[in-house]
Amino acid sequence: MSQPSVIIATASYDFTIRFWEAQSASCYRAINYPAVPQRELDEGRNPQNVNKLEISPDKRHLAAACNPYIRLFDINFHHGHVRTFVAHTSNVTAVGFHADGNSMYSGSEDGTVRIWDLRYNQFFFQLKSMLVKDIHVLSNTLLTRKLKCRAPNRPEVYERNCLKAYHLDGSVTPINTVVLHPNQLCVLSHYLIGKMVQIELISGDQDGIIRVWDTRMNSCTIELVPEPDTAIRSLSVMRDGSMLAAANDGGTCYIWNIVRGSQVFFSLNSYLATASSDKTVKIWNVDSFTLDKVLTGHQRWVWDCAFSVDAKFILTASSDMTARLWSMEEGNELRVYRGHNKAIVCCALNDV
């Protein structure tokens, strides 16, 4: 089938990823046991859950953060080659793409933030979540296993090519969320060619610490601690880069103005959504910092949400086994996506 203009994907504790037709709310594709390569399932490994989904800017790929892998699926071909990225040693909690689609970032409970070069099938470099004490450049080692794959003549490759490793003393704090600042230019070009540009990743961890990483300097430049020992659960940066929002396990959302040079920029008619265990999604106007509306309809915990590019719609995912599409203007429910038989824990939307 031809690619839909709107890509909607959900992942559930039922060990499936489902793709949905936006208008009819029908499921047109399901991926079973997406978090583990088929060979490992055949060898007796238990299925794992998907923690986060992200659609590439060109709508060609869906990245799934799993344990301990990142798996990259071809959206357009049901039996297309699946890439499996290995280097994390624990649950992967965050995944996302650079705007040009050539690189991917991730965060994990192993305490690392990593950047991957998707063009060359290699791991790009990693940043640890504590102070860097020593840096070692490792030899380029590609760990591959040619495995039996359903797609003919396409052996599965476990991709790992570590260019840098940051070694730390002491324990490693699990990272729960990572976002890419909109000041991104070409992260690969500035590394490979040596262009001096500023690329920042922002992470939130289990100890309640938010860190801003300058990938040019390979260092942490800012630390924010809104509530000590209260885990940061979610981060979001406004598209114009003017504000950073962080939600923690205490149910509090903090917002910071992000200053670039001598000016601060605010976008008009901008909204922030908070999804909660109280079964609602609250929509906040960040120009006035007031509650704009409350979306009610889910019957259990709302785990995730995603705005359409024009912010006219929002997609939500819930433990009630449904995903729902809402009108931002009216605050009413437009579509209900049913088909999972356990909690939906994450969703992704691309309508560009």
TrEMBL record:
InterPro entries with a match to the protein in the record: MLST8, WD40/YVTN_repeat-like_dom_sf, WD40_PAC1, WD40_repeat_CS, WD40_repeat_dom_sf, WD40_rpt
WD repeats: 1-30, 85-119, 201-223, 269-288, 295-336
Location(s) in or outside the cell: Endosome
UniProt cross-references to Gene3D superfamilies, sorted A to Z: YVTN repeat-like/Quinoprotein amine dehydrogenase
Plastid keyword on record: no
Principal location listed in the UniProt entry: other
Listed CDD domains: WD40
Matches recorded under PROSITE patterns: WD_REPEATS_1 (PS00678), WD_REPEATS_2 (PS50082), WD_REPEATS_REGION (PS50294)
Keywords: Endosome, Repeat, WD repeat
Function: Component of TORC1 complex, which is an essential cell growth regulator that controls plant development. Acts by activating transcription, protein synthesis and ribosome biogenesis, and inhibiting mRNA degradation and autophagy.
PANTHER family, A to Z: G BETA-LIKE PROTEIN GBL, TARGET OF RAPAMYCIN COMPLEX SUBUNIT LST8
Family under the similarity heading: Belongs to the WD repeat LST8 family.
Assembly notes: The target of rapamycin complex 1 (TORC1) is composed of at least RAPTOR, LST8 and TOR.
Designated name of the protein: Target of rapamycin complex subunit LST8
